[in-house]
Amino acid sequence: MQYFDVVLLYIFDRFKGERSLSAVYHLLTGKKSSQTIQDGKLFNIGQFFGVLKKLNRAKLEQHVSSLQEAGLIKPNQHEGYEITSSGREALTSFLASNPLPEYLAGWQYHKVSDLYWQRLSLFVQSLSYSIRGNMSFYPISKDETIQNWVKKHFPMTKEKRVTVAENLFQEMQTILNKLPDRDASMFVMRLSGIGRTGLTISQLADMQKISYEETSIRLQSVIHAILKWVQNHSGQSPILASMIEGEGEELPLTLSTKQTYKLLESGMTIEQIVHLRRLKRSTIEDHLVEIAINVPEFSIDAFVDPKAQADIRLASKEIKSQRLKLIKNYVKDQYTYFEIRLTLCKEGI
Amino acid sequence: MPLTDLLYKHFGYREFRFGQEQIISDVLNKRDVFAMLPTGAGKSLCYQLPFYAGVSPILIVSPLVSLMEDQVQQLKAQGEKRVIALNGFLEFEKRMDILKDLSYYSFIYVSPEILQNNFVYQALKKINIELMVVDEAHCISQWGHDFRTDYLKLGEIREAFGSPPILALTATATEDVRHDILRQLNMSNPAIHVHSVDRPNIAIKLEKHSSLEAKIQAVKEYALELKGPGIIYFSSRRWADKLAKALSDEGRECAAYHAGMEQEDRLLIQQQFLNDELSIICSTNAFGMGINKSNIRFVIHFHPPSTIESYLQEIGRAGRDQLSSIAIHLYTEEDEFLPLSFIDSELPKEQEVKEVLRDFSGRVGTTYSSFQLEREGNRFDFTETAWRYLLHQLEGLGIVQNKEIQTFEVESCLREILTATEQHRKAKLLKWFRFKSWLEEKQCRRKGLLERFGESNHQVNFCCDYCGLNLQRYKGSNTQLQPTAQHVVDWGVELKRLLTVSKEDHGEKSTG
Ligand SMILES: Nc1ncnc2c1ncn2[C@@H]1O[C@H](COP(=O)(O)OP(=O)(O)O)[C@@H](O)[C@H]1O
Ligand SMILES: [Mg+2]
Ligand SMILES: [Zn+2]
User: Fold this and answer.
1) Inter-chain contact A128–B499, Cβ cutoff 8 Å?
2) Tens-digit pLDDT profile for residues B303-332
3) What is the structure's pLDDT at B148?
4) Cβ of B294 below 6 Å from ligand 1
5) Distances in Å between the alpha carbon of B92 and those of A11, B73, B263, B325?
6) Coil, helix or strand at residue B397
7) Fold of domain A3-100
8) Per residue, what are the HEC states of B340-371?
9) May I ask the CATH class of domain B3-194?
10) Is A191 on the interface with B (CB under 8 A)?
11) Positions of chain A with pLDDT lower than 70, given as ranges
């Protein structure tokens, strides 16, 4: 069984057969739809959000069908899959010897982790060359916003650069020491600097004799670990902390949702926003769900009557399901899908 | 300052390559210049150096986004900040910021399509361009191998920009094409520098195999024996991946490089290769246009390119340092069919044309900016080339006029486009046959190639397998056979090496 299969089993296990294969795909590739975001929260698998951004659908389907052939999962009526008992056994025994990366937190960090990695790796590369007096190298990131950020925050004098580099080394070492040795090693080998260019994911995978997907997920878990540490101990790692600057406080909302949020805050109703933004009502409703999930202080009472909320929550408990359709049947169509979704996602937090 | 001093000061080269100095001095004398120099001869320098002699701003028209970006990166790595590339892939706001401040830039790269954009056009008109460079100028001619309609408008545009002197550059252009270029660009009393397409320092070897297995065996042996660095060309990503893996298993550092990889990984491979940390790249034909590495010792074709021009382009990546290098072409009978599917991938299919026509017919009156039009192909999943081709057809039939969709009849237009496409396909097939016939000739390989460009043969020392070739000359030492680099290392030690300077380093630096 490959690592990717384990990830799939894990997700199917959590989804309890209540979501289709598309939902799995969107989760792994980090498609920012409100539904995916909601799923991540609801089923407690947010750590996988967007960890395999380049996954192709055919590959997913191929793995799913071989898992099915092996009897580890079985299809159900919701176009989804359920884990079988032998599937669960296989999963448990695999995880016992090779647990999922502890720090993986796709949901929390998907928005910043790419940016953070790019800043950090370009910063390290630039320091590495410059402390040896060499400033002509090909930057590891072509993205100009990243290049400009690094330029703006780069120490001016040679002496300062040497000190900053030394300190950055200490900061990174402190964090990496807390992680599995293999993960730390892959992370360092992916960095570029004087005398050595970073390795690609495939090269790292070959080096460690693990799969591409495992490598990719492990590398991200290291970035997530750094982010987490830095958020809680910014005083101890000022340089690493400075690289999240400007991105940390922002709400993790999609752009369009942000606009809706602003309008809501200014006191507009859903209808008014639909009209003003010339979007479908369902789109605005998706935005609301996204906001409800991401903004803890956002109250849904204005959109779902508190009594309705109580009924819906109760229904979900009684039938032990998060499936909208089942709940809707159970409450005899008294409430809309939108009301049910909004309530469930608030509940999930 | 004498030109050679500028050359050393800004580029670090001691002397000019063949042809460069004359071209540059003609440019500095404000003459129109046509220059044909083989791939890798150093054409870019011919417009880059004049900037350091006071010519600025310089407008460079370049056909491919990837080419443009490589040039920009290179100039930047060299410490030149005032460089910008304008193309359809820039975000709108960013583009506006740049245009507002266009006079800041000294090197402005544009695609011919983007010159059709009114904002770009107006902004460029204001800044007093001192030199207009048309790179890959063969794109201007119907007879050239990758004709681009928007190149035709360059003559007018030049006038609108106050008729700055023009420098037209190309590596491969037959007599007809040269003629076309001079005429289309209205070049007056041009200085003409035509050099042979021949690359005398590259030996040529053709090698036919009876089966695919034999060919695989041969490529493995060459990869192990030949002195690197080298590039091996394949027709597909799958083959590039497969052979890269096989060669690594045999202990030669080697990596695949193609458009299917993540951008970050592609960049890493490119840099490992540039820094000689990787000796072999297994690449697709479509990729690597911008690899600017001077010490490539061999180029192997595991699959054939589809034209002689691309063959020359690809082998031309070897030996840019003018040292002895080799190009080996491996082939079997079955290879004949590969270029056929490649040709098809560069042309729109019936279903795709239909889809676009239906879509457009439902949106009559829609207007585009040139930027949007360049990107519109993405919506239908077209390749860059296929979309460009179709757009050309749409404009030709008046379906798109001044970037606005007009009313049209779907069925008849579909038929016309399909007929034109079929003709185009035939023309491409002819080009492939022209290459294929070369493989089967019984004469000096170099002579055969040059004949196809209307040149007579050159006598060179290490010519080709027909004239006789000693492969020993191109083989590496045994040491390269040991798998090196990229071992698991102690990460703590490695991180420390990257970020700290040892005592000796300090000592060295304070004196230097
Ligand atoms: N005078 C020179 N001496 C040494 N190398 C040079 C010289 N001029 C150009 N080069 C190098 O030759 C290589 C090919 O140049 P390029 O302009 O890309 O070639 P092309 O003619 O194919 O456009 C580049 O690496 C460039 O830096
Ligand atoms: Mg060139
Ligand atoms: Zn010969």
Assistant:
1) yes
2) 998 888 889 888 989 998 889 999 999 999
3) 67
4) yes
5) 39, 21, 22, 45
6) coil
7) Arc Repressor Mutant, subunit A (1.10.10)
8) HHHHHHCCCCHHHHHHHHHHHHCCCCCECCHH
9) alpha beta
10) yes
11) 32-42, 246-253, 347-349
* pLDDT at residue A349, as a whole number: 37
Each residue's pLDDT tens digit, A113-132: 889 999 999 999 999 999 99
| Contact by Cβ (8 Å): A18, A225 | no
For chain B, the structural domain boundaries read 3-194
Are A158 and B509 inside 8 Å of each other by CB? yes
Residue of B89, B499, B502 for testing the chain A interface, max A β-carbons within 10 Å: B499
Q: Which of B45, B73, B107, B198 to mutate to test the pocket of ligand 1 (most atoms within 8 A of CB)?
A: B45
Distance B200 CA to ligand 1 centre (A): 16
Cβ atoms within 10 A of the Cβ of B362, count?
10
For A157, phi then psi, to 5°, come to: -100, 160
What is the average per-residue pLDDT within B427-448? 91
Distance A128 CA to ligand 1 centre (A): 28
- The confidence band for B294, taking pLDDT boundaries of 50, 70 and 90, is confident
Asked whether B443 and B466 are in contact (CB, 8 A), the reply is yes
Q: Which residue ranges make up each domain of chain A?
A: 3-100, 113-242, 255-347
CB B447 within 8 A of CB B457: yes
Half-sphere exposure of B332 (CA within 13 A, CB side): 14
Q: Is the per-residue pLDDT at B254 higher than 60?
A: yes
B18, B195 contact by CB (below 8 A): yes
Which residues of B lie closer than 8 Å to A, measured between beta carbons?
69, 73, 77-79, 248, 255, 261-265, 267-269, 271-272, 274-275, 277, 486-492, 494-501, 505, 509, 512
CA B165 to centroid of chain Cα atoms: 24
Confidence class of residue B49 from pLDDT cuts 50, 70 and 90?
A: very high
Whether residue B456 has pLDDT greater than 90? no
* Range B427-434 average pLDDT: 86
CATH of domain A255-347: 1.10.10
ipTM of the complex: 0.74
Q: What is the mean pLDDT of residues B228-248?
A: 92
* A3-100 and A255-347 share one fold: yes
Please give the full DSSP string across A134-172, using - where no structure is assigned: ------S---HHHHHHHHHHS-SSHHHHHHHHHHHHHHH
Quote the CA–CA distance of B438 and B497 in Å, as a whole number: 53
Mutate to test the interface with A, among B78, B89, B491 (most CBs of A within 10 A): B491
Residue with tokens 């991180």: B495
| In chain A, residues 197-236 whose CB comes closer than 8 Å to chain B | 197-203, 206-208
